[in-house]
Design a protein that fits this description.
With about 475 residues, the chain is an alpha+beta fold. The strands form 2 sheets. It has a 6-stranded antiparallel beta barrel with strand order 2-9-12-11-10-13. The chain has a 4-stranded antiparallel beta sheet with strand order 6-5-3-8.
Amino acid sequence: MASPSPTGILAPPPFVLDERISDNRRERTAIAECPPGVCDAPSRRDAEDTGDERASASGVSTRDMSSHLGGHSREIEEPSAAKRNRERGEKQIPAEDKDEDRKEGEDKGEKDGKSDEDKKAQETERKRRKRRPWVIAGGAVALLALVAGGVWYWLSTRGKENTDDAYTDGISVTVAPKVAGYVVELLVSDNTRLRAGDLILRIDPRDQIAARDQAQAQLEVVQAQLANAQANLDLAKQTFPARFRQAQAQAEQARAQQDKAAADLKRQRTVDPRGTTQADIDAAVANARVAFATSGQQSANVEINRPVPLNIAISETQVKQAQAQVSQAQAQLEQAALNLSYTEMRAPQDGWVTRRNVYLGSYMQVGQSLFSLVSPNVWVTANFKENQLDRMRPGQSVQVKVDAYPNLKLHGRVDSIQMGSGSKFSAFPAENATGNFIKIVQRVPVKIVLESGMDPNIPLPLGLSVSPTVEVGG
């Protein structure tokens, strides 16, 4: 029951007034916290509805209160009506006032936002301070690891020179035929492993057999000529002296006849003209002339046959000429036999067949490249920079890593250092005496002989990239 007021009018129950007063206080608090223009009218209506709902929940509605209180309900409801009028008045605020209120609300929102950002910044700073010891510890560990790595690298590379400009090198022999012909038998294929003396292929030998037989016949001909020349020499050694003696005898006989004819002529001229005739005198003169001419002829014949040693030497020269022809024929026969042997090509050394350019039935020209034979003797040619050669000497130990086989570790030694940089022996060496000069670090080839670590089951082709490390001392 509502208790009567001093004026005699029934007052609303205390719990209803308390609810209304608390609702009004909450509403005023919300209006104070939310400036005009920021909070909208529906929120205030929601607050009123909330108050009505609470009054309803208490079991007393506004109508019930009016019915019970009579005229006092108007006084009770007056605050709510005044509140609605005040809300309507706020809605009718000019646009300038609304903008100012909105700006004030935005400023306050910005302040609230800034305060939120400050709180977030403070929270971030607090978290960062918490993480700072761990960051410092991690940085210290990383720095120690970096220093330790640098010390290890310096210790491991001290007294060593290495380069990645290095390659495997070796002997590559080009195999070519010495006779022309068709390939009738081929016994090798690509990358075949050969031993020195192994048969590679056969070329059609019929042309070379015919050439050999012809050379054999020519040899027999010159051998017969040599025998004839030798017989002539033996004959000359006896004939020429005899001819000389014969010419001398004939010359003596001619001189004797000449003396007799001269005596007969003298006798015919000194005899009494009555004891001879003119015919006898003419006959004596003619005989004397004939004897004189015959004596001169025989003297000349003696001079012709006098150079007996020279004539014998001519015969000996003919023998020597025949002997030379025999030697020439023998050489031609040997060449023909050699050409016949060239029809069977054999490996000149141990190695692998590479870059094969011959097939069964191919016609081969003399000197045509058939394939290359790579020797198993492999070394390393390393192109070190010129500033790496200060302490490098022949005989120093070398560790070699092969890029193609990471698990293969080769050991060797420095064999020699080339007496000239690579650019010095290039096809177009630099002419530094002309134009502008830019200094370029030169590289010098160093030959490294491999001594151990080779695996017979792992091929090591020429031209593979390797990384040699030379121990030049600390």
